[in-house]
Design brief:
The chain is of the alpha/beta class. It starts with a helix and ends in a 5-residue tail after the last strand. Strands 17, 18, 19, 20, 22, 24, 25, 27 and 29 form a nine-stranded antiparallel sheet that branches. A hairpin with a 2-residue loop joins strand 19 and strand 20. The radius of gyration is 28 Å and the shape is globular. The protein is built from 13 helices and 29 strands.
Length: about 700
């Protein structure tokens, strides 16, 4: 841009070299220079994620070079940062990085312990914070302000989190993850101000934390999945320290008295029995010692019948006596204020009890999320319908549950859409706000004129910039979808015959007459569209394209895709995003699903992939194969130069089937590069053939 502008300017000056440049030309030149300068500045500032609460662009930049460093905290971290940016710490320099601990960040409206003020000018960098935590977050923001190596955009930021709990949970009780994978996730997510790792350590399948007093608890014979896989006490302590170094709180969970079949197999006693409780207390003593530097212990209490009415109060009291605060699931044991330190709501039935701090996890189960639509809902959603932290709502956690065996940690990350979901949560819990809760507009981007669409499109743009810049080599199964547009028909009643043909198969129209009734066509945006969500049957369901979806209906979706050239491209397409917590059967070979869905591109039918899983017996111990589109290479298809017709037939029978318990009436379609890393550039998705 600079080259083009200077060339234009030089030509203009040459043209007028024998005469004085007019005032008009001078004004135009000045305005253009200002516009280009501002545009250059905005490029980095506008890409910050999460978006800061307050930011002022100052103009110019700071070149690191040789710099004097003055900091009371995080000395090693600052030195590493300077070195990695190509700078050098020297005793005296005109350039300076100064960190100050101050009593208060003026302007920060809440959570002063994590707030910071960051000022970057041509002469140096100044950071103010009340604690080391705020300094750490300022450093993460500064990393993103680097325009090029060693040069940082000038600005002033006053920033603070809207919620103090911003985290993720791994169910490693069911599916063990190596320490290297956990550290990798903690390190990268801490850069986006995620500050909690919830470690679900025990389950029916296995007790994954080493016990030295009861080593038989970790014996392979007492595990039903991934036998012999557990974390040593030394590894647990190491991970606590690693989390602390990355400004992240580790919350260990020992689920009780439910989800404890591994405990019962080992000791032949239920936790609620007198014998079981005695054993459990010895284990809890060991757990509290292992996690001595951690303030909380999560005790579960979900999905269980309580045979001993004194068990939960007794265990809460026991743990508190050991200096720990206690967290519990809701629904679970019913607490009154003062009887528990924090509650984590895990289902739509979870409700806030006034007087107790709560973590929102009600619709945050990525094991049920699809690749595209659910990220929209997560980003748009207010935390428990609150724009910011209250006394009773303190944050949110994204949970990854794995009732089903995992084939690899890479697929765990890809199929749970982990990183896009975490970046969406990072911004929503840091910045606050949101336009709705999950049960508001749900997963839909209805049109480009809504604030919901505009906000998500801006976030998506930033997220994909970060994907390219910081997530190379990470499993990141998301590409641009805000430009993908569809026309979708009203659903036709098929009477249970999912092969039945309806008028859209005979030709595309704005409306259709069928059996004396008119069926309209409406638009939708996104690479993934739900007609009925996985949670569509809940009393509080997530709204989808159809306000009141019915069984035994057939929908049609179509668009035209303009390609600037004839080319072979990859295709992500699916009609059922398989949950990681369901023992659903894979489709039969030659079919997309058990519903009779069909896809055509330019009137040529696209065959589904060859499914790698072929089992016909339902089991959680059979890992998913390539059922989900991000877990397989893209389908290679040809696009003609010009407009290409993409047409889906999408029938539905019943919402519960023998093969698939939680039927998702949905479809996913987007053209990607052959390696599946990016959306194909230069394509225009338009159901009306409008560029």
């Amino acid at each position: 841009m600079w080259v083009l502008f200077l060339t234009f300017t030089q030509l203009n000056i040459r043209k007028n070299k024998k005469s004085e440049i007019s005032m008009k030309n001078k004004c135009l030149l000045w305005m253009a220079l200002v516009w280009i300068a501002v545009s250059a500045q905005a490029g980095v500032v506008e890409n910050l994620l999460p978006k800061p609460q307050q930011i002022t662009v100052a103009g110019g930049s700071f070149a690191l070079g040789k710099v004097t460093l003055d900091t009371p905290v995080l000395l090693a971290e600052w030195q590493d940062f300077i070195t990695q940016a190509g700078g050098e710490v020297v005793p005296r320099s005109s350039r300076k990085i100064e960190v100050k601990l101050v009593p208060e960040i003026v302007g920060a409206k809440m959570n002063q312990e994590e707030a910071y003020r960051l000022k970057v000018s041509g002469k140096g960098i100044t950071v103010e914070a009340t604690t080391q935590k705020g300094v750490y977050w300022a450093l993460q923001t500064l990393r993103q302000l680097e325009q090029k190596k060693g040069r940082f955009e000038a600005c002033e930021i006053v920033d603070w989190p809207a919620f103090k709990i911003r985290g993720f949970m791994h169910d490693i009780g069911r599916s063990y993850l190596p320490m290297d994978e956990l550290k990798k996730e903690i390190e990268i997510l801490s850069r986006y101000k995620i500050n909690v790792f919830h470690w679900h350590l025990t389950e029916n399948q296995a007790w994954r934390l080493e016990s030295k007093i009861f080593p038989m608890l970790n014996d392979s014979v007492n595990m039903t999945r991934l036998q012999g896989k557990y974390y040593t006490i030394e590894q647990a302590k190491e991970l606590v320290a690693f989390c602390k170094a990355h400004n992240m709180l580790l919350i260990p969970e020992v689920d009780m008295p439910g989800h404890s079949a591994a405990f019962k197999r080992t000791f032949r006693h239920d936790m609620q029995s007198p014998e079981g409780t005695k054993i459990l207390k010895l284990l809890i003593d060991e757990v509290c010692e292992t996690f001595a530097d951690v303030p909380y212990l999560h005790i579960g209490t979900d999905e269980v019948g309580f045979s001993n009415p004194t068990f939960v109060p007794e265990m809460v009291s026991f743990i508190r006596e050991r200096g720990k605060k206690v967290i519990s699931w809701n629904p679970g044991w019913r607490y009154k204020p003062g009887e528990i330190d924090m509650i984590q709501m895990w289902s739509f039935n979870g409700k806030v009890t006034p007087g107790i701090p709560h973590i929102d996890c009600r619709f945050h189960y990525t094991n049920h999320f699809d690749t595209f639509a659910d990220v929209v809902a997560l980003y748009d959603s207010k935390v428990y319908n609150q724009p910011h932290q209250t006394d009773d709502v303190v944050g949110a956690i994204v949970a990854l549950w794995h009732d089903r065996l995992l084939s690899s940690e890479e697929n765990m990350v890809l199929e749970n859409n982990f990183y896009p979901s975490m970046l969406a949560l990072a911004e929503r819990t840091w910045l606050g706000g949101g336009s709705q809760y999950f049960d508001g507009e749900g997963t839909m981007m209805w049109n480009e004129n809504t604030e919901t669409y505009k906000n998500f499109a801006a976030f998506e743009k930033r997220m994909l910039i970060h994907k390219d810049k910081y997530f190379q080599g990470y499993p990141f199964g998301y590409v641009k979808q805000t430009n993908v547009k569809w026309n979708i028909t009203d659903a036709f009643p098929n009477g249970g015959d999912m092969a039945k043909v309806f008028p859209p198969e005979e030709g595309l129209k704005d409306s259709y007459q069928y059996e004396g009734k008119e069926y309209g066509v409406r638009s939708a945006i996104g690479a993934g569209i739900y007609f009925r969500h996985v949670w569509g049957g809940l009393p509080t369901s997530i709204p989808t394209f159809y306000k009141d979806p019915k069984e035994n209906h057939t929908a049609y979706a179509y668009t035209w895709v303009y390609s600037p050239k004839a080319q072979e491209v990859g295709l992500w397409a699916e009609t059922q995003n398989y949950s990681r917590s369901e023992m659903d059967l894979p489709p039969k070979q030659g079919t997309w699903d058990y519903r009779g869905s069909r896809l055509w591109i330019n009137d040529e039918e696209v065959a589904p992939p060859t499914w790698t899983a072929t089992h016909t017996t339902k089991s959680n111990e059979i890992a998913l194969g390539n059922e989900n589109c991000v877990a397989r290479p893209p389908i290679m298809v040809k696009l003609n130069k010009g407009w290409n017709k993409v047409f889906w037939k999408l029938p539905i029978g019943t919402f519960r089937t023998n093969e698939v318990r939680l039927v998702k009436w949905m479809f996913t379609t987007v053209f990607v590069t052959p390696d599946g890393q990016k959306a194909v550039e230069g394509l225009v998705y338009s159901p009306n053939k409008t560029k």
